[in-house]
Amino acid sequence: MKSVFRAVLPLCVTLAALGGAAPARQAFAQAGPGSEQPQAGMQAGASAAPQAASLSSADRAWLQKIEQALNRSPTFQARIQQIDANGKRTTGTVWMKRPGQMRLAYDAPSPLLLVATDGKVVFRDNQLDQTTVIPMERTPLGLLLRQHVSLSDDVTVTDFQHAQGFVQVTLTRTSSPGDGTLTLVFYEKPVALRSWSVVDAQGRQTQVTLFDVHEGGDLPASLFVPPADPQ
Q1: How far is CA 127 from the centre of its chain?
Q2: Alpha helices of the chain — where are they, by DSSP H?
Q3: Signal peptide span per the entry (predicted)?
Q4: What is the DSSP string of 159-188?
């Protein structure tokens, strides 16, 4: 099934969401293959409750379709192109297995590796010889790695746009909007994930594009062993 994770947009998660900043308000950019992804900016007021987007009945129907698409396959592998907060482009491979597991390996000469497992996100920089560990629940990334991906419950949809064959949804955790936001962009027909972007607690945005996607199948447990932290 090449429906959900078809597209172009990677996910270093920018070390996603460490402190307090407010949820982002996403501007819906004209999207198409090869175009830049939507931009995001942070607003003040980390402790304020997130403001939910005003959704029509048609919008809610689209959210149900998107939920179904996201939950259709628990595993996938894809090549990625990433644009970080400084505008640097990097390529690599991402493997994801719900619940709670992901590996993002960047192509050489990048020294970076990200592994999500056991409720934490481990980010390794071999060049700096540094390992950073973040609780998964403090990152927008955790929203995609749940057993069942939900666009409601403890999640608030803060922005919804539907135009020119694309659907864009911006999400944040209702109880902790300061942890950052996750924006998903889908093709309309068929409903398929084109890209995602993360804005962390410091307002840094990382955009991820997926291509050469393979859904389903077994992924070896060795993929999700976190990198060692040399002492």
Answers
A1: 25
A2: 57-70
A3: 1-29
A4: EEEEETTEEEEEEEETT-GGG-EEEEEEET
First to last CA, the chain: 44
Amino acid letter at 70? L
Tell the residue number behind the tokens 């090449």, with chain if given: 2
> Which are the contacts of 130, defined by CB distance < 8 A and separation ≥ 6?
124
| Cis peptide bond upstream of 190, omega within 30 | yes
Q: Where are the domains of the chain?
A: 13-27+50-212
Two tokens at 93? Answer: 């491979």
**Cα–Cα dist 106/186, whole Å:** 24
- 130, 120 in Cβ contact below 8 A? no
Question: Could you please report the per-residue DSSP string of 29-48?
Answer: ----TTPPPPEEEE-S-TTS
Answer yes or no: is pLDDT of 205 > 80: yes
pTM of the model: 0.71
C-alpha–C-alpha distance, residues 81 and 104, integer Å? 11
How far is it, in rounded angstroms, from Cα 39 to Cα 99? 28
**Long-range contacts from 32-36, C-beta under 8 angstroms, 24+ separation:** 32/164, 33/8
List pLDDT tens digits, range 61-93: 999 999 998 888 899 899 999 998 999 999 999
CB of 200 closer than 8 Å to CB of 17: yes
- 13-27+50-212: which CATH architecture? Clam (2.50)
- Per-residue pLDDT band for 35 (boundaries 50, 70, 90) equals very low
